[in-house]
Amino acid sequence: MSFIDKAKELAGKAGEKLEEATKKAGEMTHTAQEMAHAAEEKAEELRHSAQEKLDQVKHTDES
């Protein structure tokens, strides 16, 4: 096998690895986006719950 053939083979393998890495990065990005969205929803739920409790305390103090 000539040097050029070997270089082409290695370039092809490198391209395949790059495709795999790009696909995996895309999957990880999607997963991270889903996790961030879930965290935002949970934070909103906690904020709402805390606000309700604060309102209850204020109402109790006013009575």
What are the key terms here?
rod-shaped, single chain, mainly alpha, 63 residues
Number of strands: 0
Low-confidence parts = none
Mean pLDDT over the residues: 95
What is the total domain count? 1
What is the overall shape?
A: rod-shaped
Rg for CA atoms:
27 Å
What's the total helix number? 1
Estimated helix fraction: over 70%
What is the succession of H and E elements?
H
Class of secondary structure makeup:
mainly alpha
Termini separation comes to 91 Å
- Report the biggest beta sheet as strand number plus sense, adding barrel if it closes: none
Q: Determine the strand fraction and express it as a percent band.
A: under 5%
Write the layout of secondary structure elements.
Blueprint: H1 3-62
Could you characterize the architecture of this molecule?
The chain has one domain (1-63). The chain has one helix at residues 3-62. The protein has 63 residues and is an all-alpha fold. The chain starts with a helix and ends with a helix. 95% of the residues lie in helices and 0% in strands.
Summarize the structure.
Helix content is 95%, strand content 0%.
